[in-house]
């Protein structure tokens, strides 16, 4: 086959696919900055410690990320056959999503823009 043939390109792309268990939440109603405060606290920790941190963290994003982490753990156990005791948070990051623009009426006929930001949160686990 030719070097740039479609099937060869697909084969190479699938060979480089990351096989680690993960979970992704798209369009979370939370800004990237606020989500990153929580994600920085659990990065590199084992899953039981990370769940404990998220349980007692007062931030709104910790509730969302806690559900996402539980989903990633379930994916690791059911799809990859991994043991829960050996899992840790290898990667976790938040990417910027679309911003909803809203208008707030102000004095003297002015209008202020309110930006309701969204983000895409990804949690990747791995075994020690």
Automatic annotation (TrEMBL):
<dbReference type="InterPro" id="IPR001063">
    <property type="entry name" value="Ribosomal_uL22"/>
</dbReference>
<dbReference type="InterPro" id="IPR047867">
    <property type="entry name" value="Ribosomal_uL22_bac/org-type"/>
</dbReference>
<comment type="subunit">
    <text>Part of the 50S ribosomal subunit.</text>
</comment>
<protein>
    <recommendedName>
        <fullName>Large ribosomal subunit protein uL22</fullName>
    </recommendedName>
</protein>
<dbReference type="InterPro" id="IPR005727">
    <property type="entry name" value="Ribosomal_uL22_bac/chlpt-type"/>
</dbReference>
<dbReference type="Pfam" id="PF00237">
    <property type="entry name" value="Ribosomal_L22"/>
</dbReference>
<keyword id="KW-0694">RNA-binding</keyword>
<comment type="similarity">
    <text>Belongs to the universal ribosomal protein uL22 family.</text>
</comment>
<dbReference type="InterPro" id="IPR036394">
    <property type="entry name" value="Ribosomal_uL22_sf"/>
</dbReference>
<keyword id="KW-0699">rRNA-binding</keyword>
<dbReference type="GO" id="GO:0019843">
    <property type="term" value="F:rRNA binding"/>
</dbReference>
<feature type="region of interest" description="Disordered">
    <location>
        <begin position="1"/>
        <end position="21"/>
    </location>
</feature>
<dbReference type="GO" id="GO:0003735">
    <property type="term" value="F:structural constituent of ribosome"/>
</dbReference>
<comment type="function">
    <text>This protein binds specifically to 23S rRNA; its binding is stimulated by other ribosomal proteins, e.g. L4, L17, and L20. It is important during the early stages of 50S assembly. It makes multiple contacts with different domains of the 23S rRNA in the assembled 50S subunit and ribosome.</text>
</comment>
<dbReference type="GO" id="GO:0006412">
    <property type="term" value="P:translation"/>
</dbReference>
<dbReference type="InterPro" id="IPR018260">
    <property type="entry name" value="Ribosomal_uL22_CS"/>
</dbReference>
<comment type="function">
    <text>The globular domain of the protein is located near the polypeptide exit tunnel on the outside of the subunit, while an extended beta-hairpin is found that lines the wall of the exit tunnel in the center of the 70S ribosome.</text>
</comment>
<keyword id="KW-0687">Ribonucleoprotein</keyword>
<dbReference type="GO" id="GO:0022625">
    <property type="term" value="C:cytosolic large ribosomal subunit"/>
</dbReference>
<feature type="compositionally biased region" description="Basic and acidic residues">
    <location>
        <begin position="9"/>
        <end position="21"/>
    </location>
</feature>
<keyword id="KW-0689">Ribosomal protein</keyword>
């Amino acid at each position: 086959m030719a070097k740039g043939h479609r099937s060869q390109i697909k084969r190479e792309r699938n060979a480089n696919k990351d096989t680690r268990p993960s979970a992704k939440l798209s369009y979370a109603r939370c800004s990237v900055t606020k989500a990153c405060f929580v994600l920085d606290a659990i990065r590199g920790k084992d899953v039981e410690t990370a769940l404990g941190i998220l349980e007692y963290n007062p931030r709104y994003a910790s509730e969302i990320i806690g559900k996402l982490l539980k989903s990633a753990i379930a994916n690791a156990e059911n799809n990859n056959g991994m043991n829960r005791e050996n899992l840790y948070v290898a990667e976790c990051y938040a990417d910027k999503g679309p911003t909803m623009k809203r208008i707030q009426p102000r004095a003297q006929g002015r209008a202020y823009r309110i930006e309701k930001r969204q983000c895409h949160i990804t949690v990747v686990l791995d075994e020690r």
